[in-house]
Amino acid sequence: MTFQRLLLLLLLVANLLAPAAAQANHVLIPMDQAQKEHLKAYGIAYWLLTRKVEVDWLLNYRGGAFACEVAAGVENELAVRNVSYQVISEAQYTGILSEIADPNANMDVMKLEKVPKIAVYTPKGKQPWDDAVTMVLGYAEIPYDQIYDDEVLDGKLPKYDWLHLHHEDFTGQYGKFFASYRNRPWYQAQQREAEAVARRHSFAKVSEMKAAVVTRMQEFIAGGGFQFAMCSATDTYDIALAGLGVDMVESMYDGDPADPAAQSKLNFNRTLAFKDFQLVRDPYQYEFSNIDMDPRERGVYEDNDYFQLFTFSAKYDPVPTMLTQDHEKTIKGFMGATTAFRKGFIKSDVVIMGDNKASGEVRYMHGTLGKGTWTFYGGHDP
């Protein structure tokens, strides 16, 4: 469950934030173990914002609880969605705010005022169950637009506040599935569609098109957008940025050999999170670089794959605090094409928010670019 909670709280960061004050009876929506429907509680917060009801986000109070003034239809909607809640008096809510305001309490109150416009970058042909994010947003009843390369290259990103990327391969190597799946109809159809989109936008190669896509996404973040990436959309994003203008792709993917000097031509100044990594040049090997921890050296398998969320100062470091609200601090991990990041390749200005210290791996991190922010999560929910 906790991955989904992390995912949904990310979109709340796109809202305007300000101090709160108690004026009337309030609805308190706990997000600790008392909550029956954590995902749908996020959907309720979104629903309230669409109806111009201001929502207080109580950071580090009962798992990051939500509160709002009692308004018409709110309790009915909570009941319909089976979301746990309490109606409390003005005096009770004032007491909660006083507790949170205590300088010695690692808590704070944020006011959510804006409804974020959400886009999920995912291929049109995917089924809903292929993308964990669309499943979570659908279950939470939070609306989103599905976009892909056409929309990005047509300049549609500025319409959105929040962009999610799910296990994409931005190197143009189709996930490096060639060795195992090149004869499968779905793989061949995926390649034909990608090549057709590249031609539509006057690119000779899919790898060149994907490089243009990540460049547009960088502009989106720098302009004030929030971007969340998971699985292979993390490392391949930075690989594509580091390799802009460099042919890193072998002939089975783009029709001509890769530049043998590609590694030496990488520019790590362009990347968001990673530096000094080595490309995996073998086109038959299911790995993009040495950013991703090798499962054999991790000693971690699906049944014992956990990592720890960090704790930040709610009053002085609110953004990572918001990004780590959860009713648990030990998070069950999930495997993916890119599951865990090697700590030595992470830039010094990146804020690490979750790791497995015993394995020396980072699972969850955050940073800024221009006016915007980005977040990387290793692995994905099946």
CATH architecture field of the largest domain: 3-Layer(aba) Sandwich
Our Rg estimate from Cα atoms comes to 22 Å
Number of E-state strands: 15
Decide which structural class fits the backbone.
alpha+beta
Rough outline: globular
Quickly describe the structure.
The chain is of the alpha+beta class and 382 residues long.
What would you note in describing this structure?
This protein has 382 residues and is of the alpha+beta class. It is 31% helix and 18% strand. Helix 1 runs parallel beside helix 2 and helix 2 packs across helix 5. A hairpin with a 2-residue loop joins strand 14 and strand 15. The protein folds into 2 domains: 96 residues, 2-Layer Sandwich (Alpha-Beta Plaits), CATH 3.30.70; 260 residues, Class I glutamine amidotransferase (GATase) domain (Rossmann fold), CATH 3.40.50. The longest helix has 17 residues. Strands 6, 7, 8, 9, 10, 11, 12, 13, 14 and 15 form a 10-stranded mixed beta sheet that branches. Strands 4-1-3-2-5 form a 5-stranded antiparallel beta sheet, with helices on both faces.
